[in-house]
Amino acid sequence: xxxxxxxFFTRKKPPKVRLAMLEDSIGDILEKARKGQxxxxxxxxxxxxxxxxxxxxxxxxxxxxxxxxxxxxxxxxLNAEGLGRIARGSYRPEPALLPAxxxxxxxxxxxxxxxxxxWKLPHARACLLFxxxxxxxxxxxxIERTKCSLKGVFITHPHHDHIGGLSALKxxxxxxxxxxxxxxxxxxxxxxxxxxxxxxxxxxxxxRALSTPGHTPAALSYFLENPDWPVAFTGDALFAxxxxxxxxxYATALSSARAITSLPPATxxxxxxxxxxxxxxxxxxxxxxxxx
Length: 292
Description:
alpha/beta, six-stranded mixed beta sheet, 12 strands, 30% helix, elongated
């Protein structure tokens, strides 16, 4: 990293906040893969050489035994090494450094958390928002702390936990432009649509929309093409150690996850749930990514 912009993009210490837990357990991952490939559980267990009761214990977080994970990974076309890390609790994707311009905002629906992300432009006294969370309160508080004006909202997909705060945000910042994936019903009359592959220069920030359907039929991830520190906001297309559920579009969701991890390895990934990660870490360890 070079030049005067370094202090804007780097933070020597990670922020002192509670680290996010992985979105998916070993059971979540196995069942996403099994259901996505329409495999019968009894037949899967028979072919893996494990009892159905042992499989159920594994789904509940019980310790794997006798090579069960290796057999299941092979049959489900999963990365066995990454699956083992999930099972052992040794999946550790959180980067040591984060861009100073970035703030993750937790919003909650009951006990369930979803993240929205602010990208702050301190010299312009402006910020961009990626997804709008369950509700606007925590996001408005975060914007207030920055003393910036919200200029743009970029929605990854139309599920309520990602757009719930949008109406209140627009009421507070009526000048903010709202961008949604092409094919999504506009949540407001002035929402603008983006297609996968489309580039936009917004408030001098270069963004590229990536088409990442599967979890929903129309979805985008947003790649901030910053030469100092590339960042991608993935919604529910890719999590640390997993991907969004897509029982009826599993192959499509896999393709989207792989498209995200074709970005530069140093790219910081900001998912809607779970911890930060990087393309490089997920390329090596994510159970759903390609098997050699």
